[in-house]
Amino acid sequence: MEKHIQLVGILNIVYRSITLLLGLALFLFAAAFWDIFDYLVRIGAAQPHEIPLELMSLIPIILSCVAFLVTLVSILGIVAGAAVLKRREWGRILLLVVSFFNLMRIPFGTVLGIYTLWVLLNSEVIKVFSPAPKQAV
Question: What is the Cα–Cα distance from 96 to 56, expressed in whole angstroms?
């Protein structure tokens, strides 16, 4: 199971690093939303009167909130993956929580989430991560 633990840690770090980049790109898109919309209007790809301005003003806010959540979960996943590689119990628990978020990200996140849950909920792995009992002096 040692190889599975190491593979779970590495795969989660890589996957969450990619989603971190996507979250940061979403922040940039939210920040540049009005510029992009103005450009689309100028080239005739969007008609400003078709969508109410009140609704349009919510889009950057919603994008920023989603980007914040994606970035936060990605950072937590990277930290948890590194902690799993160092055999920290809190890292295993945090990675289990992050894996539940992975399940909703079809197809790659779902596969990684199932594999992570399968490895980290294994009784052998739980023993590896449980702290050794302190001996009385």
Answer: 37
DSSP 8-state class, residue 136:
P
User: The whole model's pTM is what?
Assistant: 0.84
Look at the alpha carbons of 43, 47, 49, 53 in this order and tell me if their dihedral is positive or negative: negative
Asked whether the bond before 107 is cis by omega within 30 degrees of 0, the reply is yes
pLDDT given for residue 136 in this prediction: 61
Q: How many CB atoms lie within 10 A of CB 86?
A: 8
Residue boundaries of the structural domains of the chain: 2-123
Q: Which of 77, 76, 71, 70 is nearest to 10 (CA)?
A: 77
Helix crossing, 89-102 with 53-85: angle to 10°? Answer: 140
Which structure tokens are listed for 81?
């993956």
Cβ atoms within 10 Å, residue 45: 9
